[in-house]
Amino acid sequence: AIEIMPEGCLYKQLLIQAKGLNGNLDKVWPDIRDSKWIGGSAEGRERVPYWLDGFMPLAWLLRDEDMQKRARTYIDAILERQEEDGWICPCGRQERHGYDVWAVFLICKVLTVYGDCSGDKRVEPAIEKALRNLNRHIETDTLFNWGMCRWYECLIPIYWLYERKPKDWLLQLAAKLQAEGLSYKKLFENWQFTEPVKQGGELSHPCGESRHGIKIRGVSGKNRRKRRHTTPFPPLSHRTCGLISTTSRPIRRSAHTFQRTILCSRQTAGNPIYSALSPISGAVPQTSARAFPSSLYPAFALERHPIGEMPFSPEEPPVSLYTDLCEIDWRMENGICKAEPENRKPLGADQRKKLIPYGCTNLRMTEMPLADGSESIEQKEKKA
Q1: For the whole model, what pTM was predicted?
Q2: Percent of the chain beyond pLDDT 70?
Q3: What is the DSSP letter of 42?
Q4: Buried b (16+ CB within 10 A) or exposed e, 236-250
């Protein structure tokens, strides 16, 4: 059951989602409306699971009876079509040997979400049957394609069931998936790509593979909070959350960007291209829980705004920061900014600029380095 309910601007944002595609995709997209998952003839792999994964929490968080009824229609159809031996995906027996079981991972994760939202007693036995079938299936039909690359996504339903039924076979299944799945550690240790590859697949896309590598460590760590049982996998390193460039090198001073920093961006009209912007007299305050007073961080002036109908839009950000910025020479490479600017010499005079939160704008900056000749906040504090 859901214990924490949304209020205020978050509730309004969820209503916006419910009125948009998230809440109506089953009415307009044939791949959802006529999916093989519910007995139709359209796509029967990832699209219904992906949609349900967001649609169901939205339905229960908003207490929307119509949305909940539509979600149950899909879940009922999926559970009714599960075969006696536990096979749950929409394909015939003769197709199983060439079937990518990534779809099993996705639908079992969706069932955990539905079970947590609805409390439906059918979910736990259905997931157990599906995972037991998977355990047998990969004995002879080993992982390949998406199932091999994204084996770790099955750890979510495995752990979900293990917390309710701590049986050894579940940990053995997790270890078996890891053994048959792609090792991202070895992939990076023997990295063959130094620049983006045109029309490259998952293995030639550094940013794509970085996110998969981070996800593996995140779902398989021994130290996951509120977990009653340990697992045989290493914990997530706090340094995995760096900013990755096209050459998979962390940008300087950004190892903890996503953990402790208020992410703000330059507010723009339209989509102009800037070489780069950099604060002259300070770095972004390092916090995610509170705003520093202007007396402590004089480089930034904080301005709070009333929460409007569109709290994540450029026009109605909940908070703004004002500071002095200047342009520097930061050139483009392969369609994006280079990992480091050419130099940090100001190209002109300081300009007073308004920064708004990362999610409110279309020109996003995660790090704004100091320009040459400027002082850091620490240096200013020492002088003071």
Answers
A1: 0.65
A2: 67
A3: B
A4: beeeebbbbbbebee
